[in-house]
Known about the structure:
Blueprint (H helix, E strand, L loop, with lengths): L2 H11 L5 H40 L5 E5 L9 H9 L4 E15 L2 E10 L3 H4 L6 E4 L8 E5 H6 L11 E6 L12 E12 L4 H4 L1 E5 H8 L8 E6 L3 H11 L4 E5 H4 L1 H39 L1 H9 L4 H37 L17 H24 L7
Parallel strand pairs: 3-8, 5-7
Antiparallel strand pairs: 1-9, 1-10, 2-3, 2-6, 2-9, 4-7, 5-8, 6-7
Amino acid sequence: MSISFFVSKKYFFSKSKFNIVSFVSLIASFVLVVASCSFFIVLSVFSGLKDFGLNYNRAFDPDIKVTSESLRVFEPTKIQIDWLSANSDSFVYSKTIEEKVLLSTDGKNSYGRLVGVDQNFRDVIEIDSVISVGRWIDMDSNEAVVSYFFADKLNLGLFNYGGELNVSIPYKENDSPLFKNPFRSLGFTPSGVYMSSNEKDQRTIFSSISSARSLLKKTDKEISSILIKPFGDPKSLIKGLKKVFNQGYIVKSREELNQTYYKMLKTESLILNILMALILSVAMFNSIGAVIILIVEKRKSVQTLLKLGATNKSVQNVFFKHGLMISLTGGVLGLFSGFCFVYLQKTFSFVKLAGTEIPYPVSLELSNVFSVIAFLLVVCCIGSYLASRTSLQIKL
């Protein structure tokens, strides 16, 4: 054990003859407890809210999506279909067909987007996580899953309770019969209702791909997109897909499908870390003040050390390590307190979202622990160094 560490430890644990010195040191540690505890809790809450939002994102967007660059509907080539089948052990995929439609029931109308899906859709998209009423569609019947938005606006009930949902599209110019309804319609029975806060998703209804093709008059080979969920690393799979679906196709990951959302998350995370680091830095000034007061109070003790052969640098190390002890003690206690609070919230959910019974989302992530520790080490070292430099400027 070095002499500087031994002396700084003695200063840290011994009681000062001036109560103000002990009081200031205690306050400095307490402020850091609060700051680091708040830092970790805020980061954990942000991570929880991010995961909470991404859960809804996973309920509507795939990990990888393949679409045509210019066509609304396309037919995959035999080579592309064979490649998907040959590599099916590394991913699962689903075919969909989409179209803008008119929805009506009992004189009430609205517009939306019809998405016809196959039997693999639920293996690729976590749609079941947002269905709160009813069930998923039966692939062998004209059933549809609608949003709360449509259920409320069109006064829909499940399984024909309240009437059938009519989905219509306009006839093409050469197909339109004279003196007849210009729309081609197909009746759907609502089987389930899902929740979403996204306006685009709220205007989406899901049906079987066969029912959608029947309404749209499309062949069994025509699709609008291929949704893919990889079992492993999606980056290598995307490279392979881009080689097969090259000219005229677009292959996008989930992040590329929601660029604005992910950029917003990264920006918010950066701003949050900067703000909390500033708060931690302000809290560090209490430790700097405590070390400076201790230097003034220990002048006679320092004179004794200098007479015994200690150098100015070793004296500075004494107060540097003392400042680290004050800062890190408060920081570690605060981090531990924040960890306990987040763990209890995650386990017992004693804090709820306002007006609901939904637990306030938090997430225990090692990255948050390392972030707080990294900020603590940097801020504590800088603060302790600045405070210890004062020992060279005070006449001992």
